[in-house]
Amino acid sequence: MANVEGNGTAGAGAWNDYWRLTPEAAAHRAGGPQEEALERFWMGVFSSNPAGGGTRQWLDFACGNGAVTRYAIEASRASGVDRRLFAFDGAPGAVGAYKSRHPDAVAVVADARHAPFADEAFDVVASQFGLEYAGIGAIGEAARLVAPAGVLAAVLHRKGGALFRECEANLRAMERVRSSRVLATAKEVFRRGAAAVRGHGSRSAFLRSEEQFATAVTVVDGVLAEFGDQVAGGTVKRLYGDLAHMYRRLGAYDPVEVGHWTDRMEREVEAYGGRMAAMLEAAIDEAGLDQAVTLVQARGLAVRARETLVAGSGAGEPTAWVLVCERR
């Protein structure tokens, strides 16, 4: 199960770079089979207004760059609810991306274990694949923030669920790509090739580097054959395609620029693996969910729903945990 205390830093650097650079609106694969189930869940949460009048205060807890807030905005427009939006995340890159998407919301960088808000400040506290990265203990902190008649709603990574297995496959694929040294050998073959063309290097040295590169490419071929083109969100396929394109035009590329590119891609592969490992570490089993329930009840909340989010058609697949609690 996930650590009750947590350290708030699992994969922190990799996630900060992700949120700073990604065009995506969520940490899960956009358009995946879970998307419809998530939208249905969140629209239900935000459309069920807490009792009482006045402006509603809604918090996106461990916000990423705003997938949950998007649902909040859509629901409030449909229902005419007057609301103020707040958000925070431990990654500055996430908060920067969040502000660019939702400039009217108040968003800050903060630790999920010590949110910088008053007790019982929010009518809705929402988190999607976020708070569990700081450990299950963070759900107690989220519960602290729920106002009387307010709601805490959380979608949590489920150990052994569909997203968990996808992350496992992604991590194995990226570890194989990294251990192949395909990028390091690509850098070397371009350097040796350019030197040979200019008469400054040994052709035999180039041919040896070419053999090493070919061996590494064979490993990447095997990754795509085993896991499919869409593994790691298509990152391996794009990497493979870029290398093939560049290699066919070896003489057209400056080896220094190729070196910079391969260095960036090596960092990206490493960071992607870090994110997948952090997701797997954060995932919660049944016992972990029991702990989460105990923590919210200790904060005076009653559990309204403790369910499995099911994605896909027909019977579907268990994807995540859903926990909805209220302060009466």
Please provide a written account of the structure:
The structure is a single chain. With 328 residues, this protein is an alpha/beta fold. Helices cover 52% and strands 17% of the residues. The protein is built from eleven helices and seven strands. It has helices at residues 12-21, 35-47, 67-79, 92-101, 137-144, 162-180, 182-197, 203-227, 235-248, 255-282, 286-298; strands at residues 56-61, 83-89, 106-109, 122-128, 146-157, 302-311, 317-326. Strands 3-2-1-4-5-7-6 form a seven-stranded mixed β-sheet. Helix 1 (12-21) crosses helix 10, helix 5 packs parallel to helix 11 and helix 7 runs antiparallel to helix 8. The longest helix is centred in the C-terminal third of the chain and has 28 residues, at 255-282. The chain is elongated. The chain starts with 11 loop residues before the first helix and ends with a strand. The model is unreliable at 1-10 and 21-30 (pLDDT under 50).
The largest β sheet comes out as: 7 strands, mixed
Question: What overall form do the CA principal axes indicate?
Answer: elongated
Q: Helical residue percent?
A: 40-55%
**With helices defined by DSSP (H or I, 4 residues minimum), what is the helix count?**
11
Category from helices, strands and their pairing: alpha/beta
Contiguous uncertain segments of 5+ residues: 1-10, 21-30
Could you tell me the number of beta strands? 7
What are the main properties of this structure?
11 helices; alpha/beta; 328 residues; disordered N terminus; seven-stranded mixed beta sheet
Question: Can you give me a brief rundown of this structure?
Answer:
With 328 residues, the chain is an alpha/beta fold. The chain has helices spanning 12-21, 35-47, 67-79, 92-101, 137-144, 162-180, 182-197, 203-227, 235-248, 255-282, 286-298, and strands at 56-61, 83-89, 106-109, 122-128, 146-157, 302-311, 317-326.
